[in-house]
Design brief:
Mean pLDDT: 79
Strand content: 25-35%
Strand order of the largest sheet: 5-4-1-6-7
Number of helices: 4
Number of strands: 19
Order of helices and strands: HHEEEHEEHEEEEEEEEEEEEEE
Distance between the termini: 155 Å
Oligomer: single chain
Largest sheet: 5 strands, mixed
Structural class: alpha/beta
Low-confidence stretches: none
């Protein structure tokens, strides 16, 4: 019952409030021209520009000064740019063409990386803005090729290929500091896989040494020769020497010659770091083929072919009855080296080698005096 009375009361209140609402005021649009008096007509021949003293001279002077400074800044920037441009820019490219540039380093060879650096250098030269430009290239292997001009664009010469030769850093430095070739260089770009050496002081050049690739462990052959033991009981021996870096020397090498194939052990040289040697028996005159085990950083120095002929033996006038003449010596006669006992007669007109078995404890005091007759000996 109470909720019914509440609903009737709320409805009556709503009807009363609806009857008490006033209507909204009406919006009327009035023109502003009704409140402005009539304007006078425009004067005849009027212009916005008048030849009269400006109303604010100080502000005008400041604006003109700012405009002048901006214009001077543009002109001075162009002047400084022209002054900063080099009058002459010459680049000499010293390219290493030794056989080690064929080593694969990444997706391509070291030579391919060098050619890409040359292309990048040509692009830098083209955009340098110099008043005069020149570019030359010098190839270096065992020798130094003549300098020749290189165009700033277009394909590179097709004969830039590695040679079956070795090289040294001194050759690269010599090519970099050589006298003027086809152009006057101001900069030198050296492209090689060798580390930079000590560059000469006082060179009026900027030498940029660009080392290609990373160092890798490698062992290589350096020399092969024949050592004849003239006064020894053994015959001639083959002496092989090599280098190694970044690792240990190979345990052995393979030597093929007239006497067959033999595995020769390798020994490090104690007096020289990074050097090793091997001694093999000499099997007579002929061709000898040396090979190192494969698997190091560079294979171009793992094989060597050499012809080893027995040199002429030393002629000796051998007069020792109880000691046979070594096989490395040939029979001699008057005028050749004389090998005799100490008690024997010495010939002062030719070289003499005197042999004595030694002095016993009870032997009388004896000695060998100085060579007074021939001080130059």
């Amino acid at each position: 019952m109470n909720w019914a009375l509440g609903m009737v009361g709320a409805g009556a209140l709503a009807v009363l409030l609806w009857h008490m609402l006033r209507p909204r005021p009406r919006r009327i649009a009035v023109s502003f021209a009704r409140f402005v008096p009539t304007l006078p007509p425009a004067p005849a021949g009027w212009s916005r520009i008048a030849l009269a003293w400006p109303r604010d001279p100080l502000a005008l002077a400041c604006l003109l000064a700012c405009a002048g400074l901006v214009g001077w800044a543009f002109v001075d920037d162009d002047r400084q740019y022209r002054a900063a441009r080099p009058g002459h820019l010459g680049l000499r490219v010293v390219l290493d063409l030794t056989h080690s540039m064929t080593v694969a380093d990444g997706p391509g060879t070291r030579l391919a990386s060098a050619l890409a650096r040359i292309e990048a250098a040509r692009a830098v030269l083209r955009g340098a803005g110099a008043q005069s430009l020149c570019l030359e290239i010098v190839g270096v292997a065992a020798g130094i090729s003549a300098a020749r001009p290189l165009p700033l664009s277009g394909p590179l010469p097709a004969d830039l290929a590695p040679l079956p030769e070795g090289g040294e850093p001194a050759r690269l430095v010599e090519a970099a500091t050589a006298p003027t070739g086809v152009c006057t260089p101001t900069h030198v770009l050296v492209l090689t896989d060798l580390p930079p050496p000590a560059l000469p002081a006082g060179a009026n050049l900027r030498i940029l040494w660009d080392q290609l690739g990373v160092p890798a462990a490698n062992a290589g052959l350096r020399s092969i020769g024949l050592e004849q033991a003239a006064f020894g009981a053994e015959g001639a021996r083959i002496r092989i020497e090599g280098l190694h870096s970044g690792g240990e020397p190979p345990p052995a090498l393979r030597l093929a010659g007239p006497g067959g194939v033999q595995e020769v052990p390798v020994h490090p040289l104690p007096e020289a770091e990074g050097r090793w040697y091997a001694d093999a028996a000499y099997a007579g005159p002929g061709e000898y083929d040396l090979r190192l085990p494969a698997g190091d950083g560079y294979s171009g120095d793992d094989r060597a072919l050499a012809r080893l002929d027995l040199p002429a033996r030393v002629a000796v006038d051998w007069r020792l009855a109880d000691l046979p003449r070594p096989p490395g010596l040939s029979p001699g006669g008057p005028g050749d080296l004389l090998v005799a006992a100490y008690e024997g007669a010495a010939d002062p007109d030719r070289p003499v080698l005197l042999v004595h078995p030694g002095f016993g404890a009870g032997a009388p005091g004896r000695g060998i005096g100085p060579f007074l007759d021939d001080p130059a000996l």
